[in-house]
Design a protein that fits this description.
With about 150 residues, the chain is mostly beta strands. Strands 1, 2, 3, 4, 5, 6, 7 and 8 form an 8-stranded antiparallel beta sheet that branches. It has a single domain, classed as Jelly Rolls, CATH 2.60.120. It contains 2 helices and 8 strands, in the order αβαβββββββ. Helix content is about 10%, strand content about 35%. The radius of gyration is 15 Å and the shape is globular. This is (S)-ureidoglycine aminohydrolase cupin domain-containing protein. It comes from Dunaliella salina (Green alga). Pfam families: Cupin_3.
């Protein structure tokens, strides 16, 4: 069943989402719901060898694709704060990055490596640093807001 909610983010403003698994979680942009706050106590989970069955059952190919760092020199370094306002599932197509949870989060200060071929879960409510080591391209559903409040 396709999503029928009206999105307010610029890329979907005023249009009904037609993807089977909507990539934009409702209300995730404006506030921390009780479910999101409860999820903040969950750790990041990385599956380094997801099965084709898992990827198909999750509908990964229908998710949006997000890229970061393309076109930058090979020796670049890119770090920025990130806030997951909703649970995010991601399948990394290319690249490598680390997520370093902030103080007070599960695994605080301990970098979690996520690289091409990994299926990862990031809990809603978590805040941390996104540290890109190699340009990233990933399919994702859910997610959050960057440190400056933009999508």
């Amino acid at each position: 069943m396709a999503c029928t909610m009206k999105h307010t983010k610029p890329f979907l403003a005023g249009k009904a989402c037609t993807t089977p698994r909507c990539p934009v979680p409702s209300r995730a942009f404006s506030r921390r719901t009780p479910a999101v706050m409860a999820a903040a106590n969950k750790p990041i989970v990385v599956n380094s060898s997801p099965s084709e069955e898992l990827l198909a059952s999750e509908g990964v190919k229908d998710w949006i694709t997000w890229s970061c760092g393309q076109g930058l020199p090979a020796d670049f370094s890119l770090q920025f704060p990130w806030h997951w306002t909703a649970d995010e599932k991601a399948y990394v197509l290319e690249g490598e990055f680390y997520v370093i949870p902030n103080e007070g989060e599960p695994g605080a200060g301990q970098p979690v490596c996520v690289k091409a071929g990994d299926f990862a879960y990031f809990p809603g409510g978590m805040k941390g640093t996104f540290d890109v080591k190699k340009p990233v391209r990933k399919h994702l559903i859910g997610g959050g807001l960057s440190g400056d409040g933009s999508w």
